[in-house]
DNA sequence: GCCAACGTTGGC
DNA sequence: GCCAACGTTGGC
């Protein structure tokens, strides 16, 4: 069981859009590192849904429902998609600022490699961010 | 709107 | 294979 984080610009595709649709084909990834991460996803893996550009926060949890297959939006065989289903919206968004300000989260790719759109995340980091969202006070 | 950090492209 | 130029992403 692995954990991941995917970014989406809420202008283009927000958590609410995702929840309404009930499923998402995660297409359009055109970066090898992100692609490799998609390929490594297994059905049932947990995925944080992050709003980039606007919002700048982890907003929900999704789950991998279908593992990587060729991206139907291109003829280029290099690229793949996965299918995600929404699991639940976080009680409150956990902001990038909050993540940045916690010593235990300094190593995560969200901070270290800000341009990567699909990244692995350690279980402890996943749990910690989740615990932030359950803490009403911060 | 600006800029840092990358990734890609193309000339040599 | 190197590197300059350029494009893109995303935070501020």
UniProtKB/TrEMBL annotation:
It comes from the Bacteria. InterPro entries: 5hmC_binding (IPR052181), EVE_domain (IPR002740), PUA-like_sf (IPR015947), THYN1-like_EVE (IPR047197). Gene3D superfamilies: ph1033 like domains. Pfam families: EVE. Residues 2-131 form the EVE domain. This is EVE domain-containing protein. It comes from Runella rosea.
């Amino acid at each position: 069981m692995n954990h991941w984080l995917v970014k989406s610009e809420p202008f283009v595709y927000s958590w609410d859009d995702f929840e309404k649709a009930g499923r998402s084909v995660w297409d359009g990834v055109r970066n090898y590192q992100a692609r490799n991460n998609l390929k490594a996803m297994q059905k049932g893996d947990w995925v944080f849904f992050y709003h980039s550009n606007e919002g700048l926060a982890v907003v929900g949890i999704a789950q991998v429902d279908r593992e990587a297959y060729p991206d139907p939006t291109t003829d280029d065989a290099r690229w793949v998609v996965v299918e995600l289903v929404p699991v639940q919206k976080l009680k409150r968004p956990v902001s990038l600022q909050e993540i940045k300000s916690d010593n235990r989260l300094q190593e995560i790719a969200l901070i270290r490699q800000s341009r990567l759109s699909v990244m692995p995340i350690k279980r402890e980091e996943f749990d910690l961010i989740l615990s932030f969202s359950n803490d009403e006070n911060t």
